[in-house]
């Protein structure tokens, strides 16, 4: 089982036999109770983290889409960050529609493009562990 130490936030591989027992973090020495895993149901439970290998497999696709299609929020939708993806899509479409008559929507669309490029580069330069912890576990929406 992968469990985050509540004291130092390091992810630890804890044997399943330790479930329900007190465990000492090898990094900080803090003690915490190892949770007993719940039975999994079809489709998973609320708040459950996605599979590590499945999620990190999306890293390159999300990075490339962030660089090429970032203004439309495609990279956000790939990672399941639908709220921020919808915001990027709405701002970009609004900027395209209103861009002919106002300068501010054009700047907003360019800003969304810049955000997409920056996030795409960040996705591809993070290690798989950092990528998983940041975007699957912590669900960080921006940058």
List the defining traits of the structure above.
elongated; two-stranded antiparallel sheet; 2 domains; about 140 residues; mainly alpha
SS element count, helices: 6
Shape: elongated
Strand order of the largest sheet: 1-2
| Tally of distinct domains | 2
| Amino- and carboxy-terminal Cα gap | 28 Å
Low-confidence stretches: 41-46
Largest sheet: 2 strands, antiparallel
Helix content: 40-55%
pLDDT averaged residue by residue: 87
Q: Which radius of gyration do the C-alpha atoms yield?
A: 19 Å
Could you state the order of secondary-structure elements as H and E? EEEEHHHHHH
Task: Quickly give the structural class.
Answer: mainly alpha
How many runs of DSSP E, i.e. beta strands?
4
Strand content: 5-15%
